[in-house]
Each structure stands twice: as C-alpha cells, then as structure tokens.
C-alpha cells in the first residue's frame, strides 16, 4: 500500500512509517508532499493519508497518530507500547509523559534540520526508531553507569528519595549506608558528580546537595569525595606507588591536579609529605 502525509517530517511522520513498515505493512511506500497536496494526491494515487486533520489516521483527543495506528491495527508488542508515550510526548510537546520524550524531540528536530531530503530523512528515521525499539525491548532497565560504586551510590540515593519525608535530626539509614559505601570504594577511580547523579535521578542538584551536606560534615558531595581522596592518598604515600599511580587510584585526572589539591588540603606537596613520613 501507499501511505501519504505532509512533507518535512519530524516525530509522528517518521514514527508512523516505522510502525507501518515494521508491524502493519512491510512493503509500504511512504510519500511526502506539501500540505495542500496530500488529499488530492491520496485520491489520485490510491494512498492512505495519515497525520493530517480530517482523515482517519490522525490525532484523536490527546493521542497522536502513532497511538491510533497501534490501536487500529491491534499492535500488541510490549516494546511498541513502551515507545508510545515517548512518541506522543515528543510529538505533542508533553515531555512530562516520558523522560525520553524531550531527547527524542531534540534528535528528531536535529535530523530534520540537517537533512533536506524527506526520503533520506525517512531512512535515518527508520534507524532511529529501530534503535528506540531495541532500547524498549532489551535495554530500558540497563543503566549507563557501569562502575560498581556508581550503581551502589545510585541505589542508596534512590532509597532516600523514595522516603518522601524528612527524618528530622536523626541520621537516616541512606546516609549511614552511603558513608560506608564511599569509604569501602574510595580506592576506585571516583569520577561521580552530584550534577550527574541529579540528572540520572531527575532531581534538582541543589536539593541533593543540601541534603547530602547535612549528614557529611557540612561538606558538599564534591568536597567530601575530595577529602576522602586525600586521606586515601596519604595512606598510599607510605607505599611504593608512584605519584602518578596514586593520582589515578584516588580519582584525580593527572598528577598535577593531584598535587595541587593535595597541597591545598595539607599545606605540602605529595613528594614533600612523603619525605616526612616515618621510616618503616
């Protein structure tokens, strides 16, 4: 079958052809024409018009054309149903419907801006929605953070955020557990930032910063991590590790960065500090 819609697609007019070809009509021919030519060309070509006011395959109430295709053709694939609110949110500017909606809009708008040819844009859109489908089917519960320490820290923060209410002056369990986890993992390359955690958890960084400092010596997350790095570095200075190795093991970008922060905290460079350590 031939399917026809308005030119210059961005969201629905790329997502719908993907859905049509993958689940409804594998041999579908997708045609893009100017708005005022869609109906005349549909009649002349015997094509099905979609994503256009006044036709069957279009928006209904708060749902977009992608939603209607799923319902009309009884598409039951669970991954497609995960994709639906993402497409709807991006297409209707309701980014609150799915956390991925704003990202889909940004990528789709960029694709349309970079590619002036609608058929080539459709080819790239098919790749985009194949990728989104794979994520929805296989990867939606996989976190980007891979370090064990990162995953543990995220789990602890999630436990805290789920409590929903303040616990007064009593130190909450999340803070105790977080302190232990940081201490246990301080010999790894700690590269987390509070901003990164906030983005992952979708919580404003100032909120996490304020709550963190209440239970960690009135220090910000970054200052607390740096403090523990310096304490670990002091322990390692008594070993045979080089200063470059110590910088890496305590999470600094390089030896000069390590030296600068170490001197700021201790008043001595790492090499001078090592010279004054008692001989074993």
Automatic annotation (TrEMBL):
Top-level lineage group: Bacteria
Keyword DNA-binding: yes
Pfam families associated with the record: ChrB_C (PF09828), HTH_18 (PF12833)
HTH araC/xylS-type domain: residues covered: 176-276
Keywords: DNA-binding, Transcription, Transcription regulation
Record protein name field: Chromate resistance protein ChrB domain-containing protein
Source lineage: Bacteria, Pseudomonadati, Bacteroidota, Chitinophagia, Chitinophagales
